[in-house]
Specification:
The complex is a heterodimer of chains A (494) and B (506).
Chain A (H helix, E strand, L loop, with lengths): L14 H9 L5 H10 L1 H9 L7 H10 L7 H7 L6 H16 L3 H13 L12 H12 L4 H9 L2 H6 L12 H11 L8 H11 L2 E4 L4 E4 L9 E3 L2 E3 L7 H13 L2 H15 L10 H16 L4 H9 L2 H4 L9 H11 L3 E3 L14 H9 L17 H4 L2 H15 L6 E3 L3 H4 L8 H13 L5 H13 L14 H14 L7
Antiparallel strand pairs in A: 1-2, 3-4, 5-6
Helix pairs in contact in A: 1-2, 2-3, 4-6, 6-18, 7-8, 8-9, 9-13, 11-12, 14-15, 14-16, 15-16, 18-21, 21-25, 23-24, 23-25, 24-25
Chain B lengths: L4 H10 L4 E4 L8 E6 L2 E5 L1 H10 L13 E2 L2 E2 L6 H6 L27 E6 L6 H4 E2 L4 H6 L10 E3 L6 E3 H12 L3 E8 L7 H10 L9 H9 L3 E2 L3 E4 L15 E3 L13 H15 L3 H22 L14 H14 L6 E5 L18 H20 L6 E6 L20 E7 L6 E2 L19 E2 H13 L3 H7 L28 E2 L5
Parallel strand pairs in B: 6-14, 6-15, 10-17, 10-18, 12-13, 12-14
Antiparallel strand pairs in B: 1-2, 2-3, 4-5, 7-9, 8-9, 10-16, 11-19, 15-16
Classes of the chains: A mainly alpha (494), B alpha/beta (506).
């Protein structure tokens, strides 16, 4: 099936590159080679056992600059000199650095997946708490069970504050969390009634927040007592002290509801396989989604079996080139793809300027995809349509220019481009263009687009190439050619 | 509601999941495509109607493709009540439409320009147009109520305009070019930011994915020049969504460029990108063509410095800069018809501010808004006569101040309509704000925001009842308030041929 946004392009790829492009936020030739060497199943198992992957570069960055992201809210409040909201800036940066340097590809991808599902914005009400949310809720459970993640989220200060539950009491209930829990986090619209929202809200009363310890606290005196019914869930809820137990039962009920299974399966499909058109999923898509939902339920909402089923399915294998990249993916792939590099922060210690995400962060903001900064409670959209806006596409096209000329000193490359890409004056232009495009995108490009790249290698795009054209002025022309590769629609597809 | 052939055809055309009207350059070849069960085929209006009757519009409420959009979760329905009843919303003007095919175009260009300013966050209308003779208001807002002394009475009314707005709006008020609609809003309001903003911008039943402005643009013409509709921002406003074409979004003129070294290589870089994208087809080709066209057309504006005309001084804010950019585009005669601009951060739950302190939250933003509008008017000079500005916000705010000296989400609000062709005065009505008159503690909505927009589209833009029925389905307007003067039909010339983007057929 052609990519609906670029229907004239054919996407030819090896299976290992295809998997790399979908699983990793920033796939590379090196990663594709690693998948090929291990084999798909073994590689997926390795990625699922994420804690066993050594990840030395990211480990070093966390230790040197982002240790706050591994502390509890209480501890980082102290560490930041009682300015815990600064950690939101550190968190955002640490996430996009993970995209560039971490080797726990599947884990990072799934952390972001869930960050958009049970979304909490880094700016705003929970800015002092999101760093802890990422540590305590998203990261531990992203490759585990959704039921565990949901319960952890509902008993975490960040979500409680973000959706105004801390002041929700039996006499004055606030429907925000009670509603979004059903609408956004689990079953989705059309599966519950307003009465369900009401009961969901009452169930959640009392689950609150202690500013001093920066943590979740249960206030039994605020909890509504009395029988509750939400869809198929019922509970006598007969004592105030029983609130936490009721919440736990409710969370597990919701996580294992068939509508939740279907919804999460559909979102996974959209993330990893293709966008579902407004006319609805194809029969094959519907079958896979159904199958994923079944696996989700039979494995007690475990991501491992669901993901393995997805990535080894025929539908997945046949979905080469179907997804349009979002800026976080595009920029990380650009930065990483242009050669070995290190992160060198402008300001050290980074806590001294916590919100300074550098030129890289500024670019993400301009493209509308700064980490954890979607302005509404429903998280970043994952449909290509919306990322093809004129401003976003223009920003993305420009980003390539910045990366190839290496204006951002925080991305410190150790090699000249011609050494990274092994190109020299006199190399055949078309042959080189085919090799470069394949190494950077994993796709075999159509010759009409290869010709564009080759023309930059030969003459900075001034002349049409022939079979005997060669690379000239390699320092300049290679840079221009790479910029064109990064600006092409082939690069925008994962 | 009787299910006549006519109303089922109307319903079919509202079912964007089911029917796509295909607009040809030659209107004789306009036709309908049906999508169902994985197939796509050509249908007549009668067949479309029959198909619509057979398929339920609310079947797949969990439709994953509409999960997340830029303005919040979809499938909300136009008001929760409509959604959950599962009933087809009343079709209002559609049911009275003539037998003329709904997808034929009756373009009646007036050369007018519409500027929609979205005051996101819930603008506090009664801090702007203050009910200074209402003791209930002062009783409810003992601390943050705007004293009469800090307002200027709007002639012949019981309202005073907050002096932070009066300061800059005085000239246009004196010229009779500013209309204030009190108690205006969206009847379907739920007090949720993203839901209500999305509802206001789509102004349509659950399964319609387009926005009111997008439908207006598509109804008037199957094509859209590059600068016909723009959003000053990162992505196109939801109101402008339509399946017929894409509209331009830009953060500002100055940076709307493809970065490259100057000189000969710039040309080859742009040409290279153009070729790569032309090889791709589909939406990608259309978007990049639009971008490159816009980059080219904006070049003279980008490379020249600009001095606003008429002594206009824009506020040094993002809003001010964006309005100035819109003014430049208008003056450059680039075919602009609609511009959407955001001025957000009105969600004043806490610390709304003291009216006498200019740097406090509401005063500061009110100054930004009014200074921006005043500068825009001065800068445009005579062109102001062809421009209509309208403000919208997802809801107003509660009458009673809260414990944090702010106000929570409410209902009725103020809409400001300004322009050279406006009958300036106060419209709508707001009762005394005694508890008995309020709706859940809020200013009641006595004027549907669509009435105001209908007034503007009909009188300034010559929109026919058919077009209006398309733009605001499920809405039958009562008598118009007469806010906008009827514009004379003129054709607008453009100095450059706008890049024509044809409908994307996939």
């Amino acid at each position: 099936m052609p990519n609906p946004y670029v229907p004239k392009l054919q996407f030819v790829s090896t299976p290992e590159w295809h998997l790399a492009r979908r699983v990793a936020i920033a796939p590379t030739q090196k990663l594709a080679n690693e998948i090929k060497a291990l084999g798909v199943n073994a590689w997926l198992d390795k990625q699922l056992a994420w804690k066993n992957i050594p990840d030395p570069v990211m480990y070093g960055l966390i230790k040197d600059h982002f240790s706050a992201t591994e502390m509890t809210a209480k501890d980082y409040t102290t560490a930041t000199g009682n300015q815990p909201w600064h950690t939101s800036g550190l968190l955002r940066r640490s996430i996009f650095l993970r995209h560039r340097y971490s080797e726990r590809y599947l884990h990072d991808q799934m952390v972001e997946f869930f960050s958009d599902l049970i979304y909490i914005s880094a700016s705003g009400k929970s800015d002092s708490l999101v760093c802890d949310y990422n540590r305590a809720v998203l990261r531990p459970h992203a490759l585990g069970k959704f039921s565990d993640m949901l319960h952890a989220a509902l008993t975490h200060a960040a979500l409680i504050v973000y959706l105004d539950n801390q002041g929700s009491t039996k006499t004055d209930p606030n429907e925000n969390l009670g509603r979004e829990l059903l609408e956004l986090h689990t079953v989705g619209v059309g599966n519950y009634t307003e009465a369900d929202v009401r009961n969901s809200t009452l169930l959640l009363t009392g689950h609150s927040f202690d500013w001093n310890t920066k943590s979740y606290v249960y206030k039994s005196y605020n909890h509504y007592v009395g029988p509750l019914k939400i869809m198929g869930f019922t509970h006598a809820n007969s004592i105030a002290a029983g609130g936490p137990a009721v919440l736990q039962a409710y969370a597990y009920y919701l996580a294992l509801h068939p509508a939740t299974a279907r919804r999460i399966a559909t979102r996974l499909y959209t993330r990893f396989v293709e966008d579902i058109l407004p006319t609805g999923p194809s029969p094959e898509a519907a079958a896979l989604i159904s199958s994923l939902a079944s696996t989700y339920l039979s494995s007690n909402s475990s991501m491992g079996p669901v993901l393995k089923k997805l990535f080894t399915s025929t539908v997945f294998k046949n979905s080469v080139g179907n997804k349009w990249r979002r800026p976080q993916e595009t920029f990380a792939t650009m930065a990483k793809g242009l050669g070995p590099n290190r992160y060198v922060p402008n300001n050290v210690p980074v806590i001294s300027s916590p919100y300074d995400s550098g030129a890289y962060g500024w670019r993400l903001e301009n493209a509308g995809h700064m980490t954890r900064e979607w302005p509404a409670v429903n998280g970043y959209p994952d449909v290509g349509d919306l990322w093809l806006s004129s401003n976003c596409l223009r920003e993305t096209t420009n980003a390539g220019e910045a990366f190839v000329w290496r204006w951002d000193k925080e991305v410190a490359y150790s090699q000249a481009l011609k050494d990274t890409f092994r190109v020299k004056d006199g190399d055949n232009a078309l042959v080189t263009a085919r090799r470069l495009t394949k190494e950077l995108t994993g796709f075999t490009w159509a010759e009409s687009s290869i010709a564009v790249i080759a023309s930059f290698l030969e003459s900075t795009g001034m002349k049409l190439v022939t079979n005997t054209s060669v690379v000239t002025n390699v320092d300049r022309n290679l840079t221009f050619a790479l910029r064109q590769i990064l600006a092409s629609p082939y690069f925008m597809v994962r | 509601m009787t299910t006549t052939i006519l109303s089922s055809q109307n319903e079919a055309l509202m079912r964007e999941d089911l029917i796509t009207p295909i607009h040809d350059h030659d209107d004789r070849y306009n036709h309908l495509l049906a999508h169902h069960g994985g197939s796509t085929w050509r249908v007549s209006p009668e067949e479309a109607g029959a198909l619509a009757l057979l398929t339920s519009p609310y079947k797949d409420l969990g439709d994953p493709s509409t999960e997340c959009t830029e303005d919040g979760p979809k499938n909300r329905g136009f008001g929760r009540r409509t959604l959950l009843k599962g009933a087809l919303a009343g079709f209002g003007a559609l049911a009275m439409a003539s037998l003329e095919p709904r997808y034929a175009f009756a373009a009646t260009p007036t050369g007018e320009i519409l500027i929609c300013i979205y005051l996101r966050g819930g603008f506090d209308g009664i801090s702007a147009v203050v009910p200074v003779t209402d003791s209930n208001y002062y009783a409810a807002r003992p601390t943050i109520g705007v004293k009469e002394a800090n307002t200027t009475r709007l002639a012949g009314t019981s309202f005073g305009l907050n002096n932070h707005m009066q300061k800059h709006l005085a000239p246009m008020i004196a010229a009779g070019q500013a209309a204030f609609v009190v108690g205006a809003g969206n009847p379907g309001v739920t007090r949720s930011h993203f839901e209500d903003m999305a509802n206001m911008e789509r102004s349509a039943p659950a399964n319609m994915r387009s926005g009111w402005l997008g439908r207006y643009l598509a109804a008037n013409s199957s094509t859209s020049g590059t600068f016909r509709a723009i959003t000053m921002g990162n992505r196109a406003a939801l109101s402008l969504s339509t399946s017929s074409f894409e509209t331009l979004a830009m953060a500002n003129i100055k940076e709307f460029d493809i970065n490259s070294w100057d000189g000969q290589w710039r040309t080859s870089v742009l040409k290279g990108v153009d070729t790569l994208y032309k090889n791709a087809g589909g939406k990608a080709t259309l978007q990049m063509s639009k971008i490159l066209d816009a980059v080219g057309q904006l070049a003279p504006l980008r490379t020249s410095s600009y001095t606003p005309a008429g002594g206009a001084v824009y506020p040094a804010s993002p809003f001010g800069k964006q309005l100035m950019d819109v003014a430049r585009i208008i003056k450059a005669n680039m075919g602009l018809e609609v511009a959407c601009v955001d001025l957000g951060d009105w969600d004043m739950h806490k610390g709304l501010g003291a009216p006498t302190v200019e740097t406090d939250w509401f005063p500061r933003k009110a100054l930004d808004l009014s200074q921006g509008l005043a500068a825009f008017r001065a800068d445009l000079g005579d062109l102001w006569n062809k421009v209509t500005v309208v403000t919208m916000s997802e809801f107003g705010r509660r009458v009673e101040e809260n414990g944090d000296l702010g106000v929570d989400h409410g209902h009725g609000n103020l809409m400001l309509v300004a322009g050279g062709g406006i009958n300036g005065k106060v419209y709508g009505n707001m009762p005394a704000l005694s508890k008995g008159n309020l709706v859940e503690g809020d200013v009641p909505i006595t004027t549907d925001y669509r009435l105001v927009l209908t007034d503007i589209l009909k009188n300034r833009f010559g929109a026919s009842p058919t077009v209006l029925g398309n733009v605001f389905p499920s809405y039958t307007p009562p008598a118009l308030l007469g806010i906008a003067k009827p514009a004379t039909l003129t054709t607008r010339s453009t100095t450059t041929a706008p890049g024509v983007i044809t409908a994307f057929r996939g």
